[in-house]
Fold this protein.
Amino acid sequence: MSRNQLSLSSQGRSSVLRRLLSSAPGVFGLVVVTAILATALVSLFWTPFDPRATDVASRWLPPGWPHLLGTDLTGRDILSLIMAGSRTTVLVAVGAGVVATLIGLALGALGALTARWVRETVAVLVDVLIAFPVLIIAMLISTVQGGSLWVVVWAVGIGFGVNVARVTRPELRRVQHSDFVIAGKASGLSPLQNLVQHLLPNIAPVFIVQLSWAMATAVLAEAGLSYLGFGASVVDPSWGILLADLQRYIQIHPLTVVWPGLAITITVLAFNLLGDALRDATDPTLRTGRRPAGRARAGQPRLPEVTA
């Protein structure tokens, strides 16, 4: 790669970052997601109190010093439990995102860039798999294999990988007939090189939205399955388990239930807003509305309706 190409690539990244930071929802999502990642990292080494330590004499303390969010029925510090639970949230969100990316792009490429009989087989397979709800798949797997974070990761990853494939497949088929893709083939690029250099960058806006939804759904799925007893084990810190423990006492200590529920809500909202802002930043025509619908510039995808 030449020095000029590197300079253009750097300018493109800085332009995307500027557009992202100019969006209030994008800044909110970026700040919250960064804070969650930082909290998960810090909790590996430090929390205000040991999240597993019980102190019956200090149970049900209201928010104050030194328990900033209060304590639960066994005297555990709620802030420490939420900090420790952020590790589980990050693990599930990132793990499900990676699985969804690998499965979705693989199925999308097979369904768009291969022989006709392969494309039709993949299309039928995607239509069959997409009929199964993600949470039902996770509950069925958990019933057989037992509750585990990896069950949630694989269930959400597979479920949303199929969604990614269904949305990216038509975009890949459209972009592969563009002039720059044909020129890449003529210049000797292999199908994999063309996919990485030309096709994937042009479907990035669609893919980013689907990936952000997959990560947000992973957070909800982990919390919901842990709440029902199908997700994290009781020894693992989890916002869903904490919510299940505290909701039984909601009429007596309603404030304690607010904290894990608020953590889940803000995290899911942040992932969705960050995904939308990244989509707009990578394709600024969606934000400015300068081009009429249906008239995409060469090399720019015309976004379909995204279904989750």
User: Anything to note?
Assistant: The chain has a mean pLDDT of 80. The two ends are 38 Å apart (CA to CA).
